[in-house]
UniProtKB/TrEMBL annotation:
Coiled coil regions in record: none
InterPro entries registered for this protein in UniProt: BP-dependent_transpt_permease, MetI-like, MetI-like_sf, OppC_N
Keywords recorded for this protein, A-Z: Cell membrane, Membrane, Transmembrane, Transmembrane helix, Transport
Name assigned to this protein: ABC transporter permease
Amino acid sequence: MSTGELPPTSGAGGAASAPLHEPASIHGDDGGAAGADHSGEGVWRRAWRTLRRNPVAIAGFVIVAAFVIVAVLAPLIAPYGPHELPGRTDVRPTYIPGPSAEYWLGVDRYGGDVFSKLIWGARASLLVGVVSTLFGLTGGMLIGLLAGWFGRWVDFAAMRLVDLMLSVPSLLLAVSIAAVAGQSQMAVIVAIGVVQVPIFARLLRGSMLAQRGQDYVLAASALGLTRRSVTMSHVLPNSVGPVIVQATLTLATAVIEAAALSFLGLGGGEPSTAEWGRMLTAAQQELAVAPRLAILPGLCIAITALGFTLVGESLREALDPRNRTRR
């Protein structure tokens, strides 16, 4: 039986009385699937229990937790501030000091402590990734909700807008928006957020259309509930699961795209700015002298994106009904 689906009935009286026994599965935190689970265990609770036994999910959570802790506690962890250049007097045209007791990972061409800049770069990446994803999630859910709620010409117009946005490569669209909006961190956030809008819009719209055909929705309508009540109280809560999973996966993409835009010089700030993408840009000319200046921020970007990807994929598998039936 599908999510929140009512048991079949043989008469009109049965169809009218069955929804009265469904509130726990329709309004509950389990997204309506508890009615199909004889143990009474909610979908999200069961997913969390599955994730705790999944070593891939655990590895992803550890990476993400470490990234968040470093970003939040950057002022306490970093030996120097994001704009400080303590080693500028030690840098020579053909020499960049390497790791030492004072500078654990050495300094860069501008004299900045690489270890400190990597830590402050984590904070910048977390800010851009989370805010841009929330921006895209909000805009996408709004468009998807309108398309799934009203249907007809509203759905047609919304989906044609989504198709138009998806027809342009995401990175090219982000670069264009960031270039027009100006070279700043806010421009990067807006650019990445706009690129994510059609992804969330199409996903929520498709999920809502699938839920609208379920028996519990037809039963709620038969009881006299308005379209608004059915959509907001029943259809939408049961449709957000895939969107939440996609938001987790999109965080990984947002971190990579933020670094790419900063690498292209669209993130604003000085060349010595403590941001992973800017650090890669500044390291291009120093590959022969100090390759670590490019390797270290590149590893940070890759590991962080990997962590979010592992969490998102594990969450998707844990919420997949086909996987739940095999457990």
